[in-house]
Write a structure and sequence with these properties.
Layout (H helix, E strand, L loop, with lengths): L2 H18 L4 E2 L15 E2 L3 H19 L9 H19 L1 H5 L4 H21 L3 H7 L2 H12 L2 H10 L2 H14 L3 H9 L1 H23 L10 H23 L20 H45 L1
Parallel strand pairs: 1-2
């Protein structure tokens, strides 16, 4: 069995296991039920699992149809793509989702998976060409080419992928949903909670799209500017994380309205969540800056080889 088929099978098994195993489902964003074990608290909403499986299917189907790739996708990129999907799956479908309604710290870890870890790993898998090739040929011809060829769509894409816009949206969503009002509303309202997750994931994809520029896309930012872009992003993340960590007031009343499942106080949980936001956000930016430096080095080496070959 090829690596692609193994990975696709693994994604499918992970997506369907908790339904087939008879685990007790947790209601979408309803937290743990009375007396329910954490290990059985899987989200009963099948959409995240189906979305993950569909993305994996399109990706590996597209790779199987790509006979003479202009920019081959290697095994490490395939593994990165799968790990990114698994991060998204864990964030939305596993007991992490139920625990996030009880613990602010777990909620911040969930958001880190959705905003940073999942999108970054998925984009490192260079998914654009494989997923497009995985679509039904009729859809590719009649819909995708028509949309891509539209001048209005192109202008919208240019605006949306402007680094200033992507950074504003990415950090704006982060700050918006840490404000006590919207955060507490997300804990009390399932629809708004789902909107919050969708916004965090989509703005995360936009932010990392400019940094990673998966082939054949090319970012407008030079590699050096991307490193600066990531470095400057550490500042607002640090300020927000520190503000929550060192705050001595209980900011998020929504967590006091659900059953306490640990002996950790609400204030300590809030401080731990602030640390998760602070440390995880800063670390991801530094890791990504290191990846960009490697990409920059590889690009320069490739350019030198081409120049040497043409000399």
């Amino acid at each position: 069995m090829s690596l692609s088929l193994w990975l696709l099978t693994g994604i499918g098994a992970a997506s369907g296991w908790h339904f087939l195993a008879g685990a007790s489902p947790a209601e979408a964003h309803g937290g743990l039920g009375p007396g329910q074990s954490v290990w059985t608290a899987w989200n009963s909403d099948p959409l995240p699992a189906l979305g993950v499986f569909l993305a994996a299917y399109l990706y590996f189907t597209g790779l199987s149809r790509w006979n003479n790739p202009s920019h081959p996708v290697n095994n490490w990129q395939r593994v990165s793509f799968v790990l990114g999907l698994l991060a998204i799956f864990v964030a939305l479908q596993s007991p992490v989702d139920a625990l996030s309604d009880h613990l602010f710290s777990v909620h911040q870890a969930q958001h880190a998976l959705l905003r940073m870890v999942g999108p970054l790993l998925v984009l490192l898998g260079a998914p654009m060409t494989p997923m497009l090739r995985g679509l039904p040929p009729g859809m590719l011809r009649s819909v995708v080419r028509l949309v891509v060829g539209s001048p209005k769509v192109r202008r919208g894409y240019q605006w949306l992928t402007n680094p200033v816009v992507t950074t504003t949206l990415y950090l704006g969503a982060l700050y918006l949903f840490q404000v006590p009002g919207p955060h507490n509303l997300a804990l009390r309202n399932d629809a708004f909670h789902q909107v919050m997750h969708l916004v965090m994931f989509s703005t995360g994809m936009l932010f990392w799209w400019v940094v990673i520029d998966p082939k054949p896309h090319r970012s407008r930012l030079h590699y050096g500017l991307r490193i600066l872009y990531l470095g400057l992003g550490v500042i607002p993340n640090t300020l927000l994380g520190a503000a929550i960590t060192f705050n001595t007031n209980q900011l998020y009343a929504g967590y006091a309205e659900v059953e306490r499942i640990t002996s950790i106080s609400l204030l300590l949980d809030q401080q731990l969540g602030g640390l998760v936001l602070w440390v995880a956000g800063d670390m991801m930016n530094m890791i990504a800056a290191g990846i960009v430096m490697i990409m920059w080095y590889q690009r320069e080496m490739e350019k030198e080889r081409k120049e040497a070959a043409s000399a």
